[in-house]
Fold this sequence. Notes:
2 domains; Rossmann fold; 16 helices; Nonspecific Lipid-transfer Protein, Chain A; about 400 residues; seven-stranded mixed beta sheet; alpha/beta
Amino acid sequence: MFNQIRLRAWSEGLRSQPSLPLRVELWNGQRLDFSPDPPRVTVHVPHARALRYLLSPSLYNLGRAYVEGAIDVSGSANDMIAVVNALAGNAVAKNLRTALPALGLGRLLGALARGHTRQRDAAAVRYHYDVSNEFYAAWLDPGMVYSCAYFDNGDETLAEAQVKKIDHILTKIGVRPGHRLLDIGCGWGALAIRAAQRYGARCVGITLSDNQAWLARAQVERAGLGGLVEIRLQDYRDVGGQFDRITSVGMFEHVGVRQLPAYFRRMATLLAPDGVAMNHGLTTTDPDSHGAPNGGGEFISRYVFPHGELAHLGTVIQAMQEGGLEVRDVENLRRHYARTCAMWTDNFEANAQRIKGMTDARRFRIWQVYLAGCTHAFTHDWISLYQVVCGKAGRDPAAIPWSRRYMYAQA
């Protein structure tokens, strides 16, 4: 009876908001519609116990309920995320100022207490990336680039935009024939292969994922670049030598906020005196590095990126300076990542039946919620993506041209 009263109050609260293309179907056959138009999303509540997820909604609670099978949701992934966000936002908007620190800080403090050891970081990376190479190939571009694409005009295909992203990075840092390049978190090898093939660089790519290393090495051999590209299964803390250029693309989110100065100090140690590096990575838009609102960060930490932490851009720049690096250029690609995630989501949905055959239902739902949720988060400025070009502090950056015009020269 108490839940029925709360359900009535909850539904009346939603109806006072702009109409939602949502239907809620209860275990007793009751239907609740929140728009005069046909529903684009239907939430199925199979038993009374599952009501608690709707009555105390957050992106974490609702995402968890869907992933664990406590509720079922039908509709497109993008519509699902928009509706879920409306449900969560309606419930917590009045308390958002206090909710954000509580949701993010607990996770942050827990991660700091556990620390980022080599073993724990390797296990977290393998949890995320070693689903299977076929799983990722089903929704990524043919080059299997798992990071923000770059849309020069906005009408590029995903494959075109990923190649443009890699070229944008390599142009920004001024890669030249014979340069020794280190790619920290090399994924399936696309950047290292492109740097060797088009720019004549000698590349070392490192990853902690067995699946990535295996396929990246196969891709290198297939491209006939065995003499120029080496793929290592190695932690960044164990790399030696010096490099003319260093790239880190979509990797430093695994490092940990407290470890960022040491991470950038290691990068500075590996960088040649006149070398140039770029960090391309996710950031939170919360100034206190509390993560995404409405429980989105908590969902990702539990289900998608164990021990992952997002820092604010200001924290990143400070950590670079503490690590002995000078920031030379910063570019915000949030809009580009929103489009990238939307394309990934469309690919995932288009290949849903094939993907379901590659993994279990729980993991399928995790990635379905995660990809569509990231599209929403980037679109609404909950999280962002920055490319930061840097070099060793205290040196004349002679390797970089006077103006930024060179970054956008036509190939």
